[in-house]
Write a structure and sequence with these properties.
Helices cover 28% and strands 33% of the residues. It has 252 residues and is of the alpha/beta class. The protein folds into two domains: 187 residues, Vaccinia Virus protein VP39 (Rossmann fold, 3-Layer(aba) Sandwich); 51 residues, Nucleic acid-binding proteins (OB fold (Dihydrolipoamide Acetyltransferase, E2P), Beta Barrel). A hairpin with a 3-residue loop joins strand 11 and strand 12. The termini are far apart. The structure holds S-adenosylmethionine. S-adenosylmethionine (SAM) binds next to helix 3 and strand 2.
Length: 252
C-alpha cells in the first residue's frame, strides 16, 4: 500500500492532475458512488483530478460537469464551468445546465488562514452550499459527498444532511494527509419520502396489510402503523423511513 506522501508521485506517474484523485477513488471503492452512465456534478473541481476519475467511472455514456473559481484545463468528455458556488446565479445556471444528477461531489476548500475556527467555519459554509446545490439537482436515490474540516459546526451540518438521505457517514480516506482535519460526509440515497423520522402528523388508516399493520398514505407514500384499524384517523410519529415505505407509531 502506498504511503500517504507517495500519492503526489503516483498522480504524476499515472497522469492525474492532483493527488486528490486517489481520495475520490478510495471514497468510491468504499461507498460505490459513480456508476457507468451517471451524471456527476463536481464542485471545487480544479485542477481536475476528481473530474478525471469521475469521467473514467461514468464512461462515455456518462456526463461529468465540474465547477471551480479557477479555470480548469480541458478534459475529454468533461464540461467545466468557472464560477463561485456561493453565488446563487451560478448555482441556478448549473441546475439548468445539468437537469438531474446521480451524484453531487464537493471537494471545495477555503483559502486556509491557519486559524482553525475560521477555516472550519468557512469549510462548513462551502459544504452547505454544496448540500443546497445537491438538493436542487440530485435525483431521488442519488448520492452526495462533501469535504469538510472537522470541528464544532460539523454536527449541525451532518444532522441537516441526515434528514435528506438514507444514511450519512464520515469518511477519512487514506489518501488524505495525516495531519489534515479534513473528512468527507458521504450521504447515500437521497430520500423521496414526504415525511422524515420524528415527524408527527395525523393520518387516516385506509386499509390493514397482510401483517396486520394499518396502512396510511401521505402524498402517495405508504406508512405502516401497527395497532390501528381501517377508517381511524390517528396521530402518529414517524419512526423509520425506507426507500418506498415507512413505519410510524401511534401517539396517544
Ligand atoms: C482541494 S481543491 C479541489 C481538488 C480537486 N478535487 C481535484 O481533484 O483536483 C479545492 C478547490 O475548491 C475551489 N473552491 C473554493 N471555494 C470555491 C467556491 N466558492 N466555488 C467554487 N470553487 C471553490 C478552489 O478554487 C479549489 O480549486
Amino acid at each position: 500500500m502506498a504511503r500517504k506522501d507517495d500519492y503526489y508521485n503516483r498522480a504524476k506517474q499515472e497522469g492525474y492532475r492532483s493527488r486528490a484523485a486517489y481520495k475520490l477513488k478510495q471514497l468510491n471503492e468504499e461507498s460505490h458512488l459513480v456508476e457507468r452512465g451517471d451524471t456527476v456534478v463536481d464542485l471545487g473541481a480544479a485542477p481536475g483530478g476528481w473530474l478525471q476519475v469521475a469521467a473514467e467511472l461514468a464512461g462515455d455514456e456518462g456526463t461529468v460537469v465540474g465547477v471551480d473559481l479557477q479555470r480548469i484545463k480541458d478534459i475529454d468528455g468533461v464540461e467545466t464551468v468557472r464560477g463561485d458556488m456561493t453565488d446563487e446565479d451560478v448555482r441556478t445556471d448549473l441546475v439548468e445546465r445539468v437537469g438531474e444528477a446521480d451524484v453531487v461531489l464537493s471537494d471545495m476548500a477555503p483559502n486556509m488562514t491557519g486559524e482553525y475556527n475560521l477555516d472550519h467555519a468557512r469549510s462548513v459554509h462551502l459544504a452547505r452550499q454544496a448540500f443546497e446545490t445537491s438538493m436542487a439537482v440530485l435525483a431521488p436515490g442519488g448520492d452526495f459527498v462533501a469535504k469538510v474540516f472537522d470541528g464544532p459546526d460539523l454536527a449541525d451540518l451532518k444532522a441537516a444532511v441526515e434528514r435528506e438521505f438514507r444514511y450519512v457517514r464520515e469518511v477519512r480516506p487514506e489518501a488524505s494527509r495525516k495531519e489534515s482535519s479534513e473528512l468527507y460526509l458521504v450521504a447515500k440515497r437521497r430520500l423521496t419520502a414526504p415525511v422524515r423520522e420524528g415527524d408527527e402528523l395525523d393520518v387516516e388508516i385506509q386499509d390493514v396489510g397482510s401483517e396486520g399493520d394499518g396502512i396510511a398514505k401521505v402524498e402517495g407514500f405508504t406508512l405502516f402503523v401497527p395497532d390501528t384499524e381501517a377508517g381511524e384517523t390517528v396521530t402518529v410519529e414517524v419512526t423509520d423511513i425506507k426507500a418506498r415505505f415507512g413505519f410510524a407509531e401511534r401517539v396517544e
